[in-house]
Amino acid sequence: MGKFDENSYSNSSGLNGVGLSCINALSTKLEIYIVRKNQKYNSQFQKGILTKKLKLIDKNVEKESGTTIKFYPDLEIFDIKEMSFDFEELSNYFRRLSFLNPKLKFILKDKDNDKIYKFYSKNGISDYLNYLVKNHKLIKNDLYFEGTDEKNNSVKITLNYSDDDEEIIMAFCNSVWNSDGGTHVQGFKFGLVMAFKNFISEQNLIPKKADITIEDINGDDIREGLVAVIDLKHKKPLYASQTKLQLTNRDTQGFIMKFINDSLSQWLVSNLTEGKKLAQKIIDNAISRKLVKIVKDKNKKSSILKSNKLSDCIGNDKEKNELWIVEGLSAGGSAKSCRDKTFQAIYSLRGKPLNSHSISLHKILSNKELNDLINILGGIGEDFDNEKLKYSKIILMSDADIDGCHINCLLLTFIFKFYKNLINEEKIYLVDTPLFSVKFNGKRYYFKTEKEKDEFIKDKKSCNITRFKGLGELNPEQLWEVAMNPKTRKLIPIKINNLEDSILAFEKLMGKDPEERKEFILKNSHLAEIDL
């Protein structure tokens, strides 16, 4: 009996209390308040030790029910002076919970900044899909399926396709986001492939002139542009670790695979027009991928190392080697002159690269600049092996002006789309290059913004001020001092704090919809640091 009885909870994200035990151990004080049947109880801990046993403190409580936890993080353990919480991360967490628990309101209060965040969803994961894909759906109506297995484990799945090629699968078990997927995602992918390949084959949809067969179509072709949400409710979930990032229940894979295969197959036959539209996209993806392979094979026959735009390093220490992607041949020339060629490789970028967000890989491989970069990195997609990468840092260095920022955005779009794992492993960096140089009392100082420069020269006389138009204006000694010397340079690591927000941000800023981009810019224009 009790909380572990199957009749107490139909499903739960955790019953053993490990999470609360950890919070208790890391807090100077933890208070628990429980209200049941109009009676209120309280228990308290200090530094993980029980100081007040559970005790009835109020026998007549009205309009209140549930449990309240108050905890005070131990600053000594975290070695900080003041505790702060990431309200953006908390907002994302409660937003997801609102989608997974429709018609349940979540309220997050930031008392320090006097802000209140409210999260509510009427239609559950259908609202979640709209949040993820918004106005870029390939078909008008989302696909939505519900099912239950013989053990009374249930699943809800909604999906659609966007006009982008980014694959988004948000998978949950008992309202916990399994960011590393697991058996429910594996089953979903297998079922998806079976349903679409059977449909394409039975409907004879591959044109006779197309240089592919049904065997040539693979999972990547089918999932390109897919946006899906999987909401699994399991009575006895198993995970790869305590963090619950990956589901491991073996029975789940077979259940989801059969369920999505049956459900999607029925939908495709019942909605032939939209089904054939999706099938045509998949066939086009397979044809394009075959063309990409032809281009890749040609690239393997020619080596990028022969290009005069790459000056490689001579060292073989992967943990130390750096690849610098530099804006312009002029700045690239200065970087080559001042670099430490033992570990610093320089690739000079000519002009602005393509916006790779909404174009095919075939078009990207046809672009000289990006194709060179792909070859330097050792491949793209399934051909890329992170373990064989020669560099531990890939550093983007561009001018500290609008054009330089735009080039960085284009490069980061390309990296985020095709080399996301390099960002996750903190191998991608930006150089915080200066915009101003001030010579005072025989010493030179560098500043990123006009505000920083003005604050420095205030009350100072005889300052010699230079505004750089580009990195090419810096002589090799200056470029080494402000950007490339490991002892004096300032590198900014690129991180993905939240995958959902990052995908949506790239969609808004680099996608095809100008109105959405304009709306985003107007909404956030007050955050811009504009140098006039």
List keywords for this structure.
532 residues; alpha+beta; Heat Shock Protein 90; Ribosomal Protein S5, domain 2; Rossmann fold; 3 domains
Q: What is the class of the largest domain in the CATH system?
A: Alpha Beta
Beta percentage is: 15-25%
Radius of gyration based on Cα positions? 28 Å
Give the mean pLDDT. Answer: 87
Indicate the percent of residues in helices. Answer: 25-40%
Give the spatial strand order of the biggest sheet. Answer: 12-14-13-15-16-20
Number of E strands: 20
In DSSP terms, counting alpha (H) and pi (I) runs of 4 or more, how many helices? 17
Unreliable spans are none
User: Biggest sheet, in brief?
Assistant: 6 strands, mixed
The appropriate CATH architecture of the largest domain is: 3-Layer(aba) Sandwich
Structural class: alpha+beta
Distance between the termini: 70 Å
Q: According to CATH, what is the topology of the largest domain?
A: Rossmann fold
What count of structural domains? 3
| Overall spatial form | globular
List the helices and strands and how they pair.
Layout lengths: L17 H8 L1 E10 L2 E8 L2 E10 L7 E8 L1 H4 L8 H14 L5 E5 L4 E5 L5 H9 L9 E6 L5 E8 L6 E6 L2 E2 L5 H20 L16 H5 L2 E8 L16 H21 L1 H30 L8 E2 L10 E6 L1 H10 L5 E6 L11 H5 L2 H10 L15 E5 L4 H17 L1 H5 L3 E4 L4 E5 L2 E5 L2 H8 L6 E4 L8 H9 L6 E3 L5 H12 L3 H11 L8
Parallel strand pairs: 9-11, 13-14, 13-15, 15-16
Antiparallel strand pairs: 1-2, 1-4, 2-3, 5-6, 7-8, 8-11, 9-10, 12-14, 16-20, 17-18, 17-19
Helix pairs in contact: 5-7, 7-8, 9-15
